[in-house]
Amino acid sequence: MMDTALGAAVVFLLVNLVAGLWRVVRGPTVTDRILPAVLFGSTTVAMLLIMAQWLDLPSLRTVALLFVLLAAVITLAFTGRSPREGEP
C-alpha cells in the first residue's frame, strides 16, 4: 500500500516537471523561464527524498542535498542580476 502511494507521488511530481518544462519553452520573459527552473530544483529534491524512502537508498538523500544547494545558487544568481533594457 505504501509503495503504491510513494510511486504515485513520484509520478505526480514528474507530471509537474513536464508542466514546468512547457512554461520554460513558452515563457515570454526571462522571469517566466527561470521560475520553473527553481520549481525543477524543489520538485527534484522532493522526488529524490521520496525515492530514497521508497527504494531504501539513503544515498539519494545526499544527492537531494546537492540539488538544494544548486537551486539556492540559481535563485540567488537570478535575484541578484540586473534587468536588461526592455525587460519587465
Count of individual helical segments: 3
Briefly note the structural class of the backbone: mainly alpha
Task: Tell me the β content.
Answer: under 5%
Number of domains: 1
Question: Main sheet?
Answer: none
Count of distinct strands = 0
Topology:
Layout: H1 2-26, H2 30-55, H3 59-80
What does this structure look like?
The protein is an all-alpha fold and 88 residues long. It has one domain. The protein has helices at residues 2-26, 30-55, 59-80. Helix 1 (2-26) packs antiparallel against helix 2 (30-55) and helix 2 runs antiparallel to helix 3 (59-80). The mean pLDDT is 83.
Compact description:
This protein is an all-alpha fold and 88 residues long.
Key structural traits:
single chain; mainly alpha; 83% helix; flat
